[in-house]
């Protein structure tokens, strides 16, 4: 049996929205298909009538500077995100995350927008974008709007995008300034190729020994991609030393809601290893910001 009945290839955002809202049966956007096609094939997704391929929409495939922001189109493949000089300068955590997603074949087709729209709390690109304080651009019949990244998620695998009505156009990131840096690291099963046991992204702004500002994201640290805002408040404005580190870690452990995933790790194990992962990620970002 066919996995879909109709396949559309819009060439603009308005055409994509039109195709999505006027389909004669259930319609889904598709980008690289590395999540969606497997889900359809393995029966984890309700049947779809129309697939709307976003990879020919020019606005969704650009990666460029726009004023004082970096814009990454939702349909940009993660290998392009990892290799582009602009992300190398302004979004190191995202480069590191995208370089770790799957293997080279999947990275050539999997897109950043697909990684985010799938709404998994430990998706690597998603966790990096969260720490980098991204904003998302969304298109619908009412036009284009921006939302804070965190507002995109409702629960595990459940994005806040209105089904059959809204599309992710791309992501805006603030440009890196002097003494700012970021880092992404993850802990993976040795033979694992998909989601990690735990990942962590840190962005920080440093002034000598003071952490002027910091964003910490950990996946999976809850039902939606998790920003450790209490740990951030504990560390913001403080000098970094063993005492502030242990208070920061305590805040992180108090706020995170680690979960047990059947094939990856128990909540207890994640609770145990987050100390080393966070320390390592923070240390690298801290040195980069010198
Ligand atoms: C072997 C393998 C290994 C993997 N390893 C990793 C890993 O290490 N880390 C990791 O994070 N992920 C991993 N993944 C998951 C996957 O590759 C990523 O999540 C990928 O980025 C999804 O992008 P895509 O373009 O293929 O999405 P698709 O499969 O095309 O779409 C995924 C979902 O997003 C929706 N969607 C896509 N684009 C948009 C848009 N612009 N607007 C609205 N909705 C949209 C689709 O309708 C669908 O619901 C792996 C997958 C495989 C098969």
Task: Explain the overall architecture.
The strands form four sheets. A five-stranded antiparallel beta sheet has the order 4-5-10-6-7. It has helices at residues 13-22, 36-41, 78-83, 85-90, 92-100, 104-109, 112-117, 124-131, 229-235, 242-255, 267-288; strands at 6-8, 27-30, 50-53, 63-66, 69-73, 135-140, 143-148, 153-155, 158-159, 167-174, 180-187, 198-207, 210-219, 226-227. Helix 9 (229-235) runs antiparallel to helix 10 (242-255). The chain has eleven helices and 14 strands. By secondary structure, the protein is of the alpha+beta class. The mean pLDDT is 96. 34% of the residues lie in helices and 26% in strands. It is globular, with a radius of gyration of 19 Å. Flavin-adenine dinucleotide (FAD) is lined by residues 28-36, 38, 54, 74-75, 78, 101-102, 106, 110-111, 113-115, 117-118, 123-125, 161, 167-168, 193-195.
Note the topology:
Layout (H helix, E strand, L loop, with lengths): L5 E3 L4 H10 L4 E4 L5 H6 L8 E4 L9 E4 L2 E5 L4 H6 L1 H6 L1 H9 L3 H6 L2 H6 L6 H8 L3 E6 L2 E6 L4 E3 L2 E2 L7 E8 L5 E8 L10 E10 L2 E10 L6 E2 L1 H7 L6 H14 L11 H22 L2
Parallel strand pairs: 1-3, 2-3
Antiparallel strand pairs: 4-5, 5-10, 6-7, 6-10, 8-9, 11-12, 12-13, 13-14
The structure holds flavin-adenine dinucleotide (FAD).
The site of flavin-adenine dinucleotide has 33 residues, from strand 2, helix 2, helix 7, helix 8 and strand 10.
Which labels suit this protein?
binds flavin-adenine dinucleotide, five-stranded antiparallel beta sheet, alpha+beta, 290 residues, four-stranded antiparallel beta sheet
